[in-house]
Fold Probable GTP-binding protein EngB.
Amino acid sequence: PKVTIKSAVFVGSAVERAGYPGESLPEVAFAGRSNVGKSSLINCLLGTKKLVRTSRTPGRTQTINFFRINDAFFFVDLPGYGYAKVPAAVRARWGPMMETYLKERRTLRAVVQILDFRHPPTPDDLALWNWLQATGVLTLPVLTKADKVKKSLRSKNLAQAAAALALTSCDLIVFSAVTREGRDLLWDRLMPLVVP
Ligand code: GTP
Ligand code: MG
């Protein structure tokens, strides 16, 4: 069944747990390196251009941002990692902020981990992936910016990412916020997680 977005509302940003909205609805969070395309992917899924702020400047999203969709579930835009120019104070709080959220959010159903299809996973990508596996968080890996990858490189890049994550290629969703490739497939995997 195709998902219809009836409403998508920004409900707030948080750094501390006290700032999270109540644990009343199922939730999916989106994580990845700074500038990888997290906010664009969320906008693409929702069919909105501007609900989630996107930017050419990496490290723009520095807090945990909650969006309520159809009054039925939350999407959560997590701050990106791996960008050296983010101020040291912001970088220092990233780890505890993420760890608290990912470990303690009882309504969290899955994390969509977004990777750049153009390049192999970075050490930071692998560190998050391994931590999520070890912590037992269901993680859906998505390879984005597929519109930037030549046809001739797709299967090589896919195999490379799968090997790095110890998965098979069919576990990975190839995505583009520009062409919307992978959008329906990702929704197919998300739907069962967010419907009651
Ligand atoms: P931070 O919030 O800074 O961590 O970044 P982000 O991961 O939310 O990335 P964002 O969605 O802001 O996108 C970063 C840049 O990549 C922007 O210039 C986007 O237009 C571009 N971008 C995002 N997704 C795609 C995609 O699928 N294809 C192409 N070609 N560009 C993309
Ligand atoms: Mg962002």
In short: The first strand starts at residue 8 and ends at 14.
